[in-house]
Recover the amino acids of this structure.
């Protein structure tokens, strides 16, 4: 199908100033009594004839007044409402014309004339998308109605969609295809979609789907467009349903290229909904077909997508394999931009796996490629990734150096979102260096950016960061306020991971002010969410936090169980940093009870691990 021209939206805006006039004398609908009392039937018919005569003589106000009397005798009569709407429209009383036409449609939703009249009002108002949507619904009820069909074509030709519509209509005619109601609505719906009128596009395209058509390719095309339009208006499950129907049509037709496209769309949709197993299934199918068709670019994209889904699932082995494969394909094709990005993605997975040396190697190579391309955005991303690596290594000065590079580039590009990320990186490094006032200033700058962009997710993160700093400074009242703000934002957005972190931070803050029962309550919520989301690292740390609360309440058996569970999980996921903390907590726990023989091996294991993870305090 032909797509809408880039100027369609400007044309729509101009349409209101040059809407074509509706002919003043439109033949009125004959009126017969419906619900009026029998003794008033003759009077109703006489009044209707008088109204018709007034209309034909151009006396619209008299016609309207007489029809209003008719409605007193036969209330909610669709025919009279339609006729009065015609007169109101001729009299330029658009609001009343629209109200009558709308009520007429509500009373008789399958009557073609109700849609025709309502569309006439929309046209007069210059609201062509509304007119086209109205006519399409009417055609769905009555696809063979020639009056509605010609009104739809005429409205499209007079609308700002005229040029792309005429082009598409010419292609249909050239292909020796009779322009049916289905094809006309399909064409209009796709042009509305291309112009960004998503809700109207959904109405028109769904109307097309209600009509029978032997053109399988066109039905597949409509399904594809409907999935895009439904997704744009937030009807995600309906969009997926259309994607599945589109896939079935492509499989039935044997078109492998279209089938690959459908699998890619479904993979992306399921990934967005965190339905990872289904996303993997469709991305694998997309990769398999793309490879068989020797479509390397599509295979690269699919391999990249698989890497991201595996990462989200926590399947890091397959994530590494997928990103490596994409890097190899990008290298063979000479796509340096994609190669650099994928090396960066690979480095991110390595950092999650705590393989910092591998991560650093990847991100340095990512930076080299970005510098060779002169791509400032990719250079900034590379520096941001390197800052995270050095942060993990506790080399905070190097982390600051790379975050400052990000900040400088953000100012050059006038990229406010990037500026916020730079302030976050600088804040983290300052906090870990113990420079809390600096950290607080950087986090406040991050919050300012979030408020400027009206980005609630970043606002929540910045609030959490500020809460941590205030807590470290002993300002627990401010810390609680910031953490509560983070929790509120996470609850509003349905961000379960964010909720878990907020509950954890609130629990720590309550422990700091001696409110251990409140702390325990919040840490239990944190534990529930970490299990629900499969965040094993968070689950382990939460057991440690719960142990602190139980110990403070004198519930030592439970405290010991949770300290031990923290250590077990840290070892299961091979998180050396978390393991060292769990060992130290257990050592202090047993020492506090004067069980030094129990404490000693934990201290010994901690000191051995401290050198590995770079815990300078432990090494000393």
């Amino acid at each position: 199908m032909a797509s809408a021209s880039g100027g369609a939206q400007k044309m729509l805006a101009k349409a209101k100033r040059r809407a074509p006039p509706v002919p003043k004398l439109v033949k009125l609908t004959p009126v017969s009594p419906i619900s009026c009392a029998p003794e008033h039937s003759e009077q109703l018919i006489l009044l209707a004839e008088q109204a018709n005569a007034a209309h034909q003589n151009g006396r619209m106000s008299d016609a309207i007044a007489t029809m209003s009397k008719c409605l007193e005798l036969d209330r909610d009569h669709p025919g009279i409402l339609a006729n009065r709407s015609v007169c109101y429209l001729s009299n330029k009383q658009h609001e009343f014309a629209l109200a009558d036409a709308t009520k007429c449609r509500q009373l008789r939703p399958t009557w073609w004339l109700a849609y025709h009249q309502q569309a006439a009002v929309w046209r007069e108002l210059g609201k062509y998308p509304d007119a086209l949507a109205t006519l399409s619904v009417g055609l769905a009820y009555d696809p063979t109605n020639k009056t509605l069909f010609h009104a739809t074509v005429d409205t499209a030709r007079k609308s700002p969609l005229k040029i792309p519509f005429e082009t598409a209509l010419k292609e249909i005619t050239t292909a020796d295809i009779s322009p049916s109601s289905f094809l006309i609505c399909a064409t209009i719906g796709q042009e509305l979609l291309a112009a960004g009128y998503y809700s109207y596009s959904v109405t028109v395209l769904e109307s097309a789907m209600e009509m029978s058509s032997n053109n399988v390719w066109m039905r597949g095309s409509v399904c594809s467009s409907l999935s895009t339009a439904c997704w744009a208006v937030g009807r995600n499950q309906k969009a997926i349903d259309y994607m599945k129907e589109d896939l079935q049509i492509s499989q039935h037709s044997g078109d492998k290229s279209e089938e690959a496209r459908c699998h890619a769309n479904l993979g992306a949709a399921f990934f967005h909904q965190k339905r990872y197993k289904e996303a993997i299934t469709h991305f694998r199918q997309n990769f398999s077909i793309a490879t068989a068709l020797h479509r390397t670019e599509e295979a690269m994209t699919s391999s990249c997508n698989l890497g991201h889904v595996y990462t989200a699932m926590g399947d890091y082995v397959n994530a590494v394999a997928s990103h490596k494969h994409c890097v190899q394909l990008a290298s063979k094709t000479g796509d340096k931009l994609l190669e650099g990005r994928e090396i960066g993605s690979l480095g991110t997975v390595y950092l999650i796996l705590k393989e910092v040396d591998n991560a650093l190697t990847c991100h340095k190579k990512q930076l080299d490629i970005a510098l060779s391309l002169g791509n400032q955005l990719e250079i900034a991303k590379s520096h941001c990734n390197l800052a995270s690596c050095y942060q993990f290594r506790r080399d905070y000065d190097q982390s600051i150096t790379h975050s400052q590079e990000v900040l400088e580039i953000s100012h050059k590009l006038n990229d406010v979102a990037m500026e916020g990320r730079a302030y976050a990186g600088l804040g983290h490094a300052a906090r870990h260096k113990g420079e809390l006032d600096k950290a607080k200033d950087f986090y406040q700058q991050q919050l300012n950016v979030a408020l400027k962009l009206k980005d609630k997710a970043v606002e929540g993160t910045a609030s959490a960061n500020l809460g941590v700093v205030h807590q470290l400074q002993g300002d627990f009242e401010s810390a609680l306020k910031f953490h509560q703000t983070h929790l509120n934002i996470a609850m509003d957005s349905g961000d379960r991971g964010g909720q878990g972190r907020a509950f954890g931070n609130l629990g720590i803050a309550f422990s700091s002010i001696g409110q251990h029962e409140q702390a325990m309550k919040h840490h239990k919520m944190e534990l529930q969410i970490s299990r629900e989301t499969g965040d094993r690292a968070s689950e382990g740390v939460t057991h440690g936090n719960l142990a602190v609360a139980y110990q403070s309440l004198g519930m030592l058996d439970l405290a010991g169980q949770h300290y031990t569970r923290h250590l077990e999980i840290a070892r299961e996921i091979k998180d050396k940093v978390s393991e060292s903390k769990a060992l130290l907590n257990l050592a202090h726990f047993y020492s506090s009870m004067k069980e030094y023989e129990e404490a000693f091996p934990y201290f010994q294991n901690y000191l051995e691990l401290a050198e590995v993870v770079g815990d300078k305090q432990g090494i000393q």
